[in-house]
Amino acid sequence: MSLIKEKKVSDDKSSVENVENYLEGLYKRVLERNPNEGEFHQAVELIFQSLSPVLIKNPIYIEKGILEQLVEPERVITFRVPWVDDNGKVHVNRGFRVQFNSALGPYKGGLRFHPSVNLSIVKFLGLEQIFKNSLTGQPIGGGKGGADFDPKGKSDNEIMRFCRSFMTELAKYIGPDVDIPAGDIGVGAREIGYMFGQYKKIRGTFEAGVLTGKGLNYGGSLARKEATGYGTIYFVKEMLNSANLTLQDSTVVVSGSGNVSIYAMEKALEFGANVVACSDSSGYIYDPNGINLDTVKQIKEVESGRIADYVAIHPNAEFVDDCSKIWTVPCDIALPCATQNEIDEADAKLLIANGVKAVAEGANMPSTTEAIDLFLENDILFGPAKAANAGGVAVSSLEMAQNSMRMSWTFEEVDMKLQEIMQNIYQNCVAAAEEYGYPGNLVIGSDIAGFEKVANAMIEQGVV
Fold it and tell me: Residues in domain Glutamate/phenylalanine/leucine/valine/L-tryptophan dehydrogenase C-terminal (predicted)?
């Protein structure tokens, strides 16, 4: 597939060919220099596909080698994380922190604890984070990290020992004005608390701004837990408004049942939607009467149970022990909020055949390239991850601001700021897509809007 999308406006043929050759050559070098990193390759390819129009119009970005720098992290840190289980056995995991780009501010991005974590996944997440953070309008650069540690089945003490060991090494490379990690899959308020306590012990100072997603008792922000899910729905609301559609009485399917999924469901229900399905790694539930969110919260947030437990309380619901089949459920709005590449080409075809009107990515890169192309070709409203799920990092930045001022805003104040940020992200994506001849294409719009701000800052700072 060509790295240049079909043109919606006429461009000079030689300019198009030059940019196409440049991008294909650079992409080839990325593949050669980063072997066996499929997720990172996918993220780079998706971004390159979007950026051809801006490079044609602004050749200075090629002259200054902005993309060459952008796809190479400023710093990659890997380290061992030894810890002792409750039986006295020593385990060793691998920790990562990729500090990708600091043109707009200190590195900012979550930590993921999951057995699938490797350098490719951390780099793809970090690259996406650069654009996502830029779109928020907040003064933060892009980074990401984590470890191939699985918190499932571990005792509280085992998780605490792992977090302390992880932070003992990570503390050397982070700080409120250097790099500010947050949570991601497998890292919630508990893990952030253990890591913050270890950081404080090592540094001997109380630096509230070094981590976000903290507990409310020591510098956390109200609405942070809800932010990614709420933000996704605020973005969906803007997309639907543009097509004279509404969430009211729409049928919604949400993959996952963690923070993003739960609070996307909560806000969708507030806007009058009918959420009929959600999932976890063991399978999905379908409730034709509408998902009872209180039950889901009790199972997942209080009991740390499996979503299959839902049917014992609501016998009219159905449990299917294959989470990938959730997209067989007909819906007006699909919200992939679980993990990367969960919607493939076959899933996209099925969603389209079943009448889906809008898809918004609550997770990071949950749709394959082929799936995205199908949604766009069939005029499905599509909200890409770096725009639609930017609410979490936006409120993380607001948490940093509150820490710097040593004050706390109310839930309503934070939520109002979040709504404004998500509306601005949508409008900026729309404007960028329009400017470069791809009206309505929020994939291209989000990439260009995020890229231009970072690229211009790099040139202004003489990074080149």
Answer: 221-462
Instruction: List the one residue out of 422, 399, 405, 402 whose CA is nearest residue 223.
Output: 399
pLDDT at 245: 98
pLDDT at 7 over 80: no
pLDDT at 8 over 50: no
Q: Which of 5, 108, 144, 357 is catalytic?
A: 144
Q: Does the reported pTM lie above 0.90?
A: yes
pLDDT category of residue 11 using cuts at 50, 70 and 90:
low
